[in-house]
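>> received
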Amino acid sequence: MADTRRMAQLVERIESILGSGEVTDIHLTADERIWVRSTRGEMARLAGPGQGCRPSGETLDELHGALSGVDRPDYIAVFPSGKRVRVRRTYSLGRSQLFLRAFFNEIPSVKDLGIDGFFREAFTIRPGIIWICGPVGSGKTTLLASLLSWYVQNEPRHIVTIEDPVEYVLGEGMGIVSQRQLGDDVESFALGVRNSLREDPDIIMIGEVRDPDTVSAALSAAETGHLVLATIHAPNVAGIMERAIGMFPPGDRQDKCIRLSQTFFGAVALRLANSEKGRVWLHEVAWGDPAIRNHIREGKPHQIPSSIEMRKDAGMHTLLQNIKEAVKKGRITEEEAKKHMLLGDSL
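>> returned
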């Protein structure tokens, strides 16, 4: 009974933290104070008296059981207020830990995020792959959710997503949405893409490309007339292609370079910077013009940045160009800008 009461107090404390709208992550470790990460990316330890400040291991175990329903380390949970969170359950030196990542219930519009400005080519639905990369917490999922929501509201299309986890639930609109949770609805990203091709899709979103099978599935989907949106871990647009090509053995790379060049619709690399007015997106954007496709086809993605620099008139820019512009316009400070530049770049 005592543990149940303490768990209820902890839930109330978490609900209060999430309700502030100023926190993205909550870190819970048995017998320690609660840590949070603010929307500005800063870590802080909650101070002050009150129940729930130092949850016991038994309380965290009970909370985990109540949230998950089954004993698994990664899952999506819904609190009584309706707030959805991603939960990771693990241990540190034998002590229970729970890591909670908050999801926003409302999907920001493309106008509010500025996507209709720097990423406007993506509103034209045609076959090909649009690649999205950036560090954890840079806004990749938010950009995708906003873009997909725009498609749903404005296009009579069938959208299939394969995600791990499903962070934003897309609402109803002109189109139909099939959202698949990895591990629950489908075994892998690659299998999810291949299965979806039998379901008359127009747009396929891949939550993460992390292996050659998923790259191959994405290529097949684009080659058969679908728009594919895919995230991948890489520092910039050139890095996206280097990562995708490098997943294959040397003997297969020439073929994959050709296919990647033929299906390259566009790409964006994101960073999320702090400013006096809040957080600011920095980005590198490229579209599939002949020069960039040629670099990919020849297996020379390191030459992509030089072609991006020369095509600002076509809505392209490198990350460094965008950072310099943000500093010049006073959107971010030089000190903040340096945190997001690639090695070897300078203002």
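>> The domain at 2-102 is CATH 3.30.450.90 (Beta-Lactamase).
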